[in-house]
Specification:
Elements lengths: L2 H7 L1 E8 L5 H12 L21 H14 L1 E6 L2 E6 L8 H7 L5 E7 L6 H13 L3 E6 L8 H12 L3 E3 L1 E4 L7 E4 L4 E4 L11 E4 L7 H6 L1 H17 L5 H5 L4 E5 L8 H11 L6 E2 L4 E2 L7 E9 L8 E9 L1 E3 L4 E3 L4 E3 L5 E4 L2 E4 L2 E3 L3 E6 L8 E3 L10 E3 L3 E7 L5 H13 L4 E5 L5 E5 L3 H14 L3 E5 L4 E6 L3 H10 L4 E3 L5 E5 L2 H10 L4 E3 L1 E3 L1
Parallel strand pairs: 1-3, 1-4, 4-5, 5-11, 6-11
Antiparallel strand pairs: 2-3, 7-8, 8-9, 9-10, 12-13, 14-15, 14-23, 15-22, 16-21, 17-18, 17-23, 19-20, 24-33, 25-27, 25-28, 26-27, 26-30, 29-31, 29-32, 30-31
Helix pairs in contact: 11-12
The structure holds guanosine-5'-diphosphate.
The site of guanosine-5'-diphosphate (GDP) has 19 residues, from helix 2.
């Protein structure tokens, strides 16, 4: 086996998705503790926007700073190299999360036992389902009173459309939470609260639940209940099959309490056994396999530098095939030119380091002075365009004006670069050349205004617009398309890639347009 083959085979690149507050940051931190990537709890800062109606820009900056630090967290565990890609939970940053999901090979979904399946989780898992990304479910906060376990699994199956198979099962919950029975390994893991620094859990091999020792350990009532429930699990849920999990036909479920560091090791130990190696990635031209001889990768995220004196940014590149090397010429496919990188960076939770090489499955940070945008591909020379990096139909719109005539160049450049970062989308309306910015969440407008001022010295003014949606338009029939363009002229714009976009005033006008122009296709997402 070559070194490259070996290195790729030991990579496990995944994302943790959750509705805000379910415990994603806490779980991430505990995983890093096990991996030795951090030494103390509290080292991973939550990148949540704390106030929902924020015009508190320090908060936005704080969040951006943390996002750079937590974009990728890598550590070694059980001879695997684990890369956790961070996914913002706040819904105004959902686009960022969707794009990050194109760069992972599997996902862990965290669910709060009391709240059950929440809105953001539904949306994020839908994206995973579309891509057939394998999913593991972690039910968190078992030390708190919550929903009954069977009800919760029903909810997961109904709302997330995932077929479950529990690999661990809780013994009580809230005040009466005593631990979990590991159905997969036939072990009893007993709960000791306040195990924040990650001491090993008390684990007892327990092959036969009929063994009277169970009563001694958890009490008669709990022992009876556990026996009944495990019997039911065996009847109701499929026996775990890794192949089915990898095809996303079944999702293993774990129970635990991240803040108490309980059930986390169970989760991690199982994860390293079952989670997929780097998976093939579809490009327009062909399927790209991780272990190919030549390197290829794509940019899924761009972060502006936090230091205003340096305008450069960090582009995050997922390596899809081969080995990436420092100071080596690669082809920037969109720009058709060679580039090499003197300081490619890897991220290890608290520290960054310059790396000499990285392998398929890894993410490297490339310093960039404005050459990259999301979706860009690097290769050793082959024309490849990786597919599936989405941009979404925005739902909030503002017309933009230049607030400082002396700074129009700065404004144009700033807007251009922020759009490349994927903060929002810019549309130019055909009839009057109006510049319209569309976002998924309203918070982005504040971010854009603030950053234009602080990073580019430009002033942007907004005028609210009453638009319902912007949808990409395609049509195979040229005559029908011409007719549509003529009749809906007032409502048409081009995006930055010069693709045709229909700006719908309301759901009603959109429906009218669909009815009147049946040959036109309207798309809520477009691939970058
Ligand atoms: P995130 O928004 O998903 O990143 O959630 P956090 O990790 O920041 O957790 C949200 C809150 O839930 C914090 O106050 C955590 O301390 C708390 N929390 C996390 N895990 C548990 C748990 O297992 N039990 C309890 N009781 N609280 C938890």
């Amino acid at each position: 086996m070559t070194n490259q083959t070996k290195e790729i085979a030991r990579r496990r690149t995944f994302g943790i998705v959750a509705h805000p507050d379910a415990g994603k940051t806490t779980l991430t931190e505990k995983l890093l503790l096990f991996g030795g990537a951090i030494q103390v709890a509290g080292a991973v800062k939550s990148n949540k926007i704390k106030k929902s109606t924020t015009s508190d820009f320090m908060e936005i900056e704080r969040q951006r700073g943390i996002s750079v630090a937590t974009s990728v967290m890598a550590f070694d565990y059980a001879e695997k190299k684990i890369n956790i890609l961070d996914t913002p939970g706040h819904k105004d940053f959902a686009e960022d999360t969707y794009r990050t999901l194109t760069a992972v090979d599997s996902v862990i979904v965290v669910i709060d036992v009391a709240k059950g399946v929440e809105e953001q989780t539904e949306k994020l898992v839908e994206v995973c389902r579309m891509r057939k990304t394998p999913v593991i479910v972690f039910i968190n906060k078992m030390d708190r009173p919550g929903k009954e376990s069977f009800d919760l699994l029903d909810e997961v199956e109904q709302k997330l459309l995932l077929r479950c198979t529990p690999l661990s099962w809780p013994i009580g919950m809230g005040d009466r939470f005593q631990g979990v029975y590991n159905v997969f390994e036939k072990r009893l893991v007993l709960f000791r609260p306040d195990n924040k620094q990650g001491r090993p859990e008390e684990t007892i091999e327990f092959n036969d639940l009929e063994d009277p020792e169970l009563e001694q350990l958890v009490g008669t009532a709990a022992a009876e209940e556990l026996r009944e429930e495990v019997e039911m699990i065996n009847e109701v849920y499929p026996v775990f099959d890794r192949e089915e999990y990898l095809k996303q036909e079944v999702s293993p479920v774990f129970f635990g309490s991240a803040v108490n560091n309980f059930g986390v090791k169970e989760l991690l130990d199982c994860f390293v056994q079952i989670a997929p190696e780097p998976r093939p990635r579809p490009a327009e031209e062909r399927q790209v396999l991780p272990n190919e001889e030549t390197f290829s990768g794509f940019v899924f995220k761009i972060h502006a530098n936090m230091d205003p004196r340096h305008r450069d940014r960090i582009a995050f590149l997922r390596i899809c095939s081969g080995t990436f090397e420092r100071n080596t010429n690669y082809l920037h496919v969109r720009q058709q030119r060679k580039m090499k990188f003197a300081n490619p960076t890897s991220f290890m939770a608290e520290r960054k380091e310059v790396i000499d090489e990285a392998f398929a499955g890894d993410v490297v940070g490339l310093y960039d002075s404005g050459n990259f945008k999301i979706g860009d591909t690097l290769t050793e020379g082959e024309e490849l365009h990786f597919k599936g990096i989405p941009s979404f139909s925005p739902e909030q719109f503002r017309r933009v004006y230049n607030g400082d005539p002396l700074k129009s160049k700065q404004l144009a450049k700033g807007i251009d670069q922020l759009m490349d970062e994927g903060v929002a989308q810019l549309f130019t309306r055909g009839v009057d050349n109006a510049q319209i910015i569309g976002c998924v969440g309203a918070l982005q407008f504040d971010v854009i205004q603030y950053r234009l001022e602080h990073e580019y010295g430009a002033t942007v003014l907004y005028e609210p617009m009453n638009l319902h949606k912007a949808l990409w338009v395609t049509c195979d029939d040229d005559a029908a398309l011409d007719e549509f363009k003529e009749r809906r002229r007032q409502h048409l714009a081009l995006d930055k890639e010069e693709r045709l976009v229909y700006l719908a005033d309301s759901a009603w006008t959109l429906q009218m347009a669909k009815d009147n122009h049946p040959k036109i296709q309207f798309h809520a997402t477009s691939e970058l």
